[in-house]
Amino acid sequence: MKTEKANIYTVLAELYDTLMKDVDYEMWADFIDEVIQTHHPDPIDVLELACGTGAISLNLAQLDEYELTATDLSAAMIEKARLKAAQQEVVVDFHTMDFRDIRSEDTYDIIFSVFDSVNYLHSKEEIHKMLDGCRDILNPGGLLIFDFSTPQNSLEAVDYLNNEEGSFGSYRYFRESRYEPEEHFHFNEFEIDKMADDGKTVLESYHEIHKQRIYSLKEMLSILEQTSYHQVAKYEGFDLVEADEKSTRVTMVLRCQKQQ
Fold first, then answer.
1. In whole angstroms, what is the distance from residue 212 CA to residue 117 CA?
2. What is the distance, to the nearest Å, from the Cα of residue 246 to the centroid of all Cα atoms in its chain?
């Protein structure tokens, strides 16, 4: 049977919540809320970029503090997010958008993106394009918050991510993970099979390749220095503790100088 190459987060959308079942989204949402409340006095309109199946925004919606919009490039992921919002009876405006080509008639007090989505931007130019798009729709005094995965995280994670397998519903998957430090890229490759009702017959097979550019803190700060953004804070993990070169995940908090 021929294996079809699929765009990222298309077929994998069926399995995404299973892959992420161990992620504490409530804690993550509480951290984003803490960052927002620490650095912005009265935020109302909040936009999430690369939201996946919407777990962070759905948890933030439970706080009943923000007007939430959440976007993702993958229509399949957005469909899952909308279904979850209906099931949880919370209000989040989900729609598709590429954060490399941000277009919105609305403006926001807060824009955020989590779980190393920015690592899917493979060059300084792509990051600048995302930052420019955010700048254009941030309200005066607004904040841009995003995290990114560092080389230290890839070194620690690659072994337990590699050779992972699992299933959900009629789908099963196998993941190979590898980190290439010389090229600064981390690859996660998924083989995904859609199974017949007998659980043995493979109806369709897919291959998704996820390629992330891994940035050091020094490299990211250098990229940001070439923009109109002012660094408000840089945090390690899920605490308001300052990040350094040993941090595995860094959350940047930025304000556009043009809007001050």
1. 9
2. 21
pLDDT at 200 over 50: yes
Given phi > 0 = left and psi -120 to 50 = alpha, else beta, which region is 163? Answer: left
pLDDT of residue 260: 41
Q: Where are the alpha helices (DSSP H) in the chain?
A: 16-19, 25-39, 55-61, 75-88, 124-137, 151-161, 217-225
d(CA 55, CA 149): 19
Nearest-5° angle of CA 233, CA 113, CA 49?
Answer: 140
- Which amino acid makes up residue 13? A
Q: Which tokens in the block code for residue 21?
A: 């079942």
Question: SS3 for 224?
Answer: helix
Q: What is the pLDDT of residues 44-67, one digit of tens each?
A: 999 999 999 999 999 999 999 999
Cβ neighbours, 10 Å, residue 15: 20
In angstroms, rounded to a whole number, what is the distance separating the alpha carbons of residues 58 and 238? 18
Instruction: For residue 132, give both structure tokens.
Output: 């420019």
DSSP code per residue over 123-163: SHHHHHHHHHHHHHHEEEEEEEEEEEE-HHHHHHHHHHHTT
Q: What is the pLDDT of the chain when averaged over all its residues? A: 93
Which among 247, 52, 11, 215 is positioned nearest to 126, based on CA atoms? 215
| Global pTM value | 0.93
Q: What are phi and psi of 249, to 5 degrees?
A: -135, 135
> What span, in angstroms and rounded, lies between the C-alpha atoms of 157 and 131?
28
